[in-house]
Amino acid sequence: MIPPTTSLLLFGGVLVVGCSISARDWLLASLVLFLMVLHPRLANAGSDVGKGPAESWVTEVDIPTADPTRADQIRNGISSLLSDWQVMYRPGGYVEYEREVYKVVDRPGLEQAATINLNFDPARHSIKLNHLRVIRDGVVQDRLAEATFDIYRQERDSVRGVFDGWLTARLDVRDVRVGDTIDYATTSDRKQLVGEDLFYYRFATEWEMPIGMMRREIIWPTSRPLTLKEERTTVKPKISNVAGHTRYLWEIVNPEPVKVEDNLPASFAPWGYVQISSTTSWRDVADAVAASYQPVNTFPPAFAAKLDEIAAHQSDPRERMVEALRIVQDEVRYISLSMGAGSYLPRDPATVIASGFGDCKDKALLLASALTYLGVKAEVALADLDGGYGLASFLPALRAFDHAIVRAEIGSRVFWLDGTDYLQGGRGGRLVEPDYGYVLPLSSSRGELEKMQAAEAHEPTTAVAEEISFPVQAGDPLTLRTVSTYRGADADAMRRKLAGQSLQEFADSYLKYYDQQYPGIRSVAALKPVDDRDRNVITLSEAYELSPEALAANDLAKKFPLRADLDDGSFPKPTMIGRVGPIWIGNPMFRRHSVVVKNLKARFAGPEAPNVMTPYMTMRIEWSNTPTEFTLNWDLKKLASEVPASAVGDYVAAVGKITDNTRWFYDFTHEEPDEEEGMSGLQAITFVAWLLAVLATCVVEQRTFKPRPGQLYWPISPQKFVVMTVMTGGLYGMLWGWRVFRQQNLAYGARYWSFLRGVFLSFFAVQIFLRVNRDLGARQVATGLGVVAGLLLLGSEVYTFAIEPPEAFWANGLRIFGGLAISALAPLPLVVAINRINERNPEYLARNALLSGWDKVWMVFGVFFTVALTHYDLTSG
Q1: CB under 8 Å to 826, separation ≥6 — which residues?
Q2: Nearest CA to 643 among 661, 617, 604?
Q3: Under a CB-based contact definition with an 8 Å cutoff, are residues 13 and 120 in contact?
Q4: What are phi and psi of 45, to 5 degrees?
Q5: Phi and psi at residue 480, in whole multiples of 5°?
Q6: Of 304, 366, 464, 805, most Cβ neighbours within 10 A?
Q7: What is the sign, positive or negative, of the torsion defined by CA atoms of 61, 67, 73, 76?
Q8: End-to-end Cα, the chain, rounded Å
Q9: pLDDT digits (tens, 9 = 90+) for 697-730
Q10: Global pTM value
């Protein structure tokens, strides 16, 4: 019994070049399949399958026993005992002997054990059943004579438009029971229709399940030496010479089952492998098929006319390349007739044009021919869709490839073109090129593979912008507007989806997506796509509404979800236990999602430090807000294709953090207390008028001030000082301080900045008081009283301007009027001290005690401004 994981390796036929699928003509595909079923080769397939003994060069070994300690690792009720594969060179091909022995150990194994499927290509293979034995309770039953075959054609890839012509000879073994051992062997004669001198084989040295022994034997002419290469294994062959042939023998007894890790890159073998190849040069592989892929220079008239029209209208070779590519992609549908040599060789371009269909080989040759006709250097290159990144570790082999593309050169720039794609957009630098890893150009190769270079994404290939507007008035619905922008490869993919599905299907799927987040939401406008194919940009516009009732249901507004659709689920999450191999996370990508929420009643913020920064992927989240809007932006970038096993822990943690930070919930019913309102128009006018009055006072004071020789400082009656200070809201105290320091400069020859010292009198009150009091000698005012009063004045000023006003009206009023009282009373010890030092000149005190005309103006305007500003301070607090 051949385990599913290794059947391809063991049957070892030529791989069908199965390309990526574009548009399909299902009616034609069905017709082609019907005609194939009636093909004469199927009618004569019985002659390709028969019975007979193994050839004399075959070595039949004894059946090994299974390791009983590994019984708990047996799967599906079948214990594999022997897998034996032997091959002998024959001109133009080789003869292959295969023997499988397995035991049914439980009921689930009966169906699989009793059915033997022999797959073969009638164009290249003939197969014989050498023996069929059932061993029951130690007794060998020969079932060969009674064996009969049912031959049928499966065409497993017909739904993809691929037809390879392989047949299956099915053999049902009668009367199989639990405990029976099945032992069968086949010999197949294999002709090489392409690359007759090429041979390649690759086998696993360990399986996922226990097996008694794996045996591989190759007998090859010594004159045709084989190259061997081991991957992740130390298994070596026994090599001997037999009659001009070299015999390579591998016998692996009871190999340790291996646990295959998931999400491995193609460049990392999941288990041990041995490769055998007849050549060390990829040039030999290219030469085996290159002649069949040479561009042609003649076309049917209608097709040639299309190319001539391109040449007439486009002088830029890059534009010619795009136009030719679109013809091949969009006008030639995909059907693959890959029978026999057709597995690797293309049909003539004229035939492809006439039939209107072709596979990757056909399209690649047609495109290379059209480009050459248009003056663009082009050739066909072989690729592997899934394993291309691992080809660098392969020995040269034709069967390593399953796809064909075109390599075009314009100047020093190389372009990779896939004719099986369709509806591609972009011109020049906007054309997205495929990335299949390593490829083999058929003409320019010098015996080496060429690495395709994937373009970096410098801008988001998918950007989703959502605008959510909460109701402004009661009864209004919530609205959601979404614009999705696709560029590059994502635009190509979306263009194909739009062509393959109805807009209604798209609209329904998008509505379902939003309904899961916002139950009850409904679409209010048809989905609107806009496609700029030349720029390769597609935009989809959506519009939705959520009724007030739906918004209120289940307190949705209190737990309102904001979700970023970043395709973060594409990041695999493998197990970390004992990880050995790297993790394949896919090609680089760049996605962006933004949400703007409007008509809010508070400021909202994103979480702290949500960014994810690793060498393999990054996610940056930025947010901003205003009193009524909240904006969130997510940027997700995949920077590398692989993550080393040593970093798997950090990687899994980063993926978890990304997932956790793509969906947040907010209580959008939250309202912040009203912020302090600005001044009203009247208040603003009052404040400006107050400032102008202060400025006018300063100007008048500067012009009318007359120094008074002999006067020390500025004596004033305490009554006038208190009244003027209170009625001017404390400003008169500053004016008085200014005069005090101006007179001090005059009397003592000092150079103080009298104006600033007057304005900030509270900071200098204690200093000037101590100086005046010292000059008084025996008639000093109590020093402690003056110092305490000065410090009280300073503390009052600091409290007024540095401390947040209390919210309570009474407390705020107490703060305002208490501060005004302190500004009028605290300087009195200094006033008394200055008056005493000027007692010898009573005329100074008498003159300054009078109310001048300007003092009266100060009082009138001071009362008005003090009341107005006090009212504003109280009401705004």
Answers
A1: 765, 789, 790, 792, 793, 796
A2: 617
A3: yes
A4: -60, -25
A5: -130, 125
A6: 366
A7: positive
A8: 89
A9: 666 666 666 666 666 777 888 888 888 877 777 7
A10: 0.74
